[in-house]
Amino acid sequence: MNLFDLTGKIAVVTGASSGLGADAARAYAAQGADVALLARRKEKLDAVVKEIEATGRKALAVPCDVSKEDSVRAAVEQVLGAFGKIDILLNDAGIAQGGSVETLTEDQWDRSMDVNVKGIYLMCKYVVPGMRERKYGRIVNIASVNAILADKADALVRHVYNTSKAAVLGLTKGMAASYARDGITVNALGPGLFESEMTENTLFKHEAFMNMYNSLCPASRPGARGELNGPVLFFSSDACSYTTGQFIVVDGGFSIT
Ligand SMILES: NC(=O)c1ccc[n+]([C@@H]2O[C@H](COP(=O)([O-])OP(=O)(O)OC[C@H]3O[C@@H](n4cnc5c(N)ncnc54)[C@H](O)[C@@H]3O)[C@@H](O)[C@H]2O)c1
């Protein structure tokens, strides 16, 4: 019995047009799931959809701004119309706004909270009822190691990012407790530094930060593409049927020293 087999499952991935979300969508398909890919940029989604379809799985690109209720409702309706059900929801969409409480504008604060926190609430609002009816669901929320750790370099301080990712942990636990009896597990992942669109032109270009990260990280390197997929598949599969409300940090040991 392969606990990680996703044959017959339908997965929805937000933020699937790039980075960790696109990697997870590919990993779901490789385990046998059909996948709906949500993000704002249709052209970028189409490229990942094509790749997945070439492997023989079904994939659907659905334009969606997770911070807008009308957009989320329409996207979930489109997925249910095409696939009939949703078994797995990976809430990956996120933005990493820099700045301290002194420098952030109110709009920057609100936008980060809207995408990183409200986006997960809205996706769950429309996906959870179907999961409860079918008595099955796997919800995986992408938080960050920065939900539990402050940024160590002054130049890279991200107060609203810290706040929004910590809020994701609260939401994860609250939903996990409410829906465990419905066969739904809700868990969160805390990536450390991974190469992606979010980081390749920011943190990866900041030599002092990279040197600091590598020297403080027991693995002495950032996460490589695909290295989040194992924990994503664990929380998305039957392997975690009795594991809920948990947070796994995936950071090469960065947060343990
Ligand atoms: N890369 C890292 O080092 C790292 C570390 C910790 C946590 N994370 C988290 O991982 C997740 C993925 O980030 P990534 O590194 O792959 O970056 P990324 O920028 O490549 O991916 C973010 C995705 O979210 C989408 N998105 C942003 N706003 C959206 C909105 N309003 N509606 C729908 N989609 C939206 C983007 O289009 C993109 O597809 C984020 O939640 C991020 O905070 C990343």
UniProtKB/TrEMBL annotation:
GO MF: oxidoreductase activity, acting on the CH-OH group of donors, NAD or NADP as acceptor; quinone binding
EC id: 1.1.1.-
Keywords assigned by UniProt, alphabetized: Oxidoreductase
Name of a matching Pfam family: adh_short
Enzyme class: oxidoreductase
Transmembrane spans: none
GO BP term, example: fatty acid biosynthetic process
Record-linked InterPro entries: NAD(P)-bd_dom_sf, Sc_DH/Rdtase_CS, SDR_fam
Gene3D superfamilies found in the cross-reference section: NAD(P)-binding Rossmann-like Domain
PROSITE patterns attached to this UniProt entry: ADH_SHORT
Family per similarity comment: Belongs to the short-chain dehydrogenases/reductases (SDR) family.
The protein, known as: Gluconate 5-dehydrogenase
The organism of origin for this protein: Caproicibacter fermentans
Lineage: Bacteria, Bacillati, Bacillota, Clostridia, Eubacteriales
Gene: gno
